[in-house]
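Please predict the structure of the following assembly.
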Amino acid sequence: MRSADSGSETAQTIAALVRDAEACPAEAAQQLARLLAHSLASPSTADRREARLGLLIDLVSSGTGEFVRSEDYETERERRRARGEEWPAASSLSRAYGHWLTAVRAACRYWFDGGQSRVCSDHHHARPTKSYKPQEIRSALLQAQAELDVGSDGWPSEWEFYEWSTIKRRLARQTGQPCRLPGRKQIRKAFGSYANAVDAARRVASG
Amino acid sequence: MSEQTATRADAGAHPLAKRLWYLLHDRSEADRRLVYEALRVRLGPREQTANQEIAVAALQRFAAARRKAEEAADPEDELPRWATGSPSKRHYNLFREAQDEPRDWPSTSLIANAFGRRWGDALQAAGLASAPDVLARRILSPGTFSRKEIESVLRTWIAEVDRVDPDRPLRQSDFVVWGKQQRSNPNASCDRVPSLPTLNKYIGGWEQVLGAFGLAHRCHAANAARFDHVPSAQKEWAEAAVEDLDLASIPRTRTGRGRSFSLEDVLSWIRWLTASLGREEVAELKMRDWNLLRAALLERLGEANRMVDVPSAQRIASHTAIPSWAQAKVMAGCTDPGPETANSHRGRFDDEELAAALAGAAEALGRLPTRGEYETYRKAELAERLKDDPWFRLPSEGTLRMRLAKTSMHWNEVLESLVARHPELAAGRGREAA
């Protein structure tokens, strides 16, 4: 994770605008605050990948073609810390990708093949898990409905459900808690489509 | 744009919020955080308990110390650990222990407990983190289209076409291109343009869409324009034929979007044409001729603004209950079944079908057939069987040679292949050779 820098001139101008109650109505301010809050709390996959692999990618890109050892990474990490940059430890990378070699391979794939290689921010999702039962999926949908507060008749959209489950899984992983929330593939395999899964959950909810 | 905006089913975002969001959403985290912080201060804190106030004050002092340490640090110096990274519990503890009187500062437990044992909520209350708000995207959702909005967009497009040429055919493909231009143009006359599936969902097919504006004839003109390359003699024939058609008795088939033609619908169109043009003429009609007639007919109907859905030849031939175009005419009673109406459907014969056809001929003859004998047998069999079963088919001797004779296409190779599959026929082959 890189150190925070102060906002640009554009951001400072916008900040001055939103502070002014006459220039920016309360409704606009509230809506913008909600949108910004979510974008800050839920960084994109690319942001997460950069925050995690950024230093390793730098080492791969500027290296001599030799394998980047975890010791070299730690040395560089310490050097960068002195400059105010914060990067994850080698052990964190090993944990996120399963092994140090896998982390280096991910950095190489991203550096040499680019976005096409679809390098993830971690490999937690690739670990074997017990398959989901339909009732687990229905429960997850009911949980999302309750937590997102969309009302007893409303249901989160497909995007909202996946976003919510991604955030929940990430937070659970950070705190070491178990979290079983199905993704797209599991729902498609169990119910055919998200709409069918919602119908099934609705039937359960209506008794 | 104003009319379109007014017809929105769900006008979500405030225009200023939307504009500012599009300026900010791709900017750096620091930029977004700066604006968010300004908004958070402006919108004010929520009501807090005494412990929450203590926790928030401590976290804000911690954040101020981090900022101060960062600003004061020389490039050569190393920052204290608590001033780097995110304001985590661990960093707060390090900071607390580094103070002269650590006990003057609330512990991480107190802070987290004040917010339901959630450190993240405490950071949010202090403005050091933001909470995910999955439903925030709903603010930007433009909502679903309404029929009124779709009609408004279509009216704008038609007006733009008419401004250049009021008689220009209104083509679906032109509308798609115009829609793309609108989407990529920030000063476009429409906020958004419905896709073709959306038009179909709300109004119907392209003919119905234009029919809703009384402009069906301009759709059919576009349809007729597809036959520009056809020789004029054929087009004249189609126009003359359509003049002879009895439009008063036109079949009433398939109405409403999303409905497919039933078998009876399709056959009634062929029968109606037979009644007007005669059995012989319809028997000779090829798919291309049918489509030519259809285009001329639709143009004539469009001039009278009559909305009639006439099936194309491709749609007839691909109907699930009809084996082929030739069979459609047989089923409608325009032609008699025969070899020329068979086999033009259902794709490739499989090996079993080929072997069964030859074996059937061998059984009927009591020996392996010659090429000529097989063709005679096939014609007789098709004439007989197609009366009862329009799906019946038999491969021609050409197909058999093509598929079973691996090298030379000789009939003998076909027979060898058959004998390899049915050794019991080998005796018959011996007699034929003798």
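The mean pLDDT of chain A is 88. Chain A touches chain B through 53 residues (CB under 8 Å).
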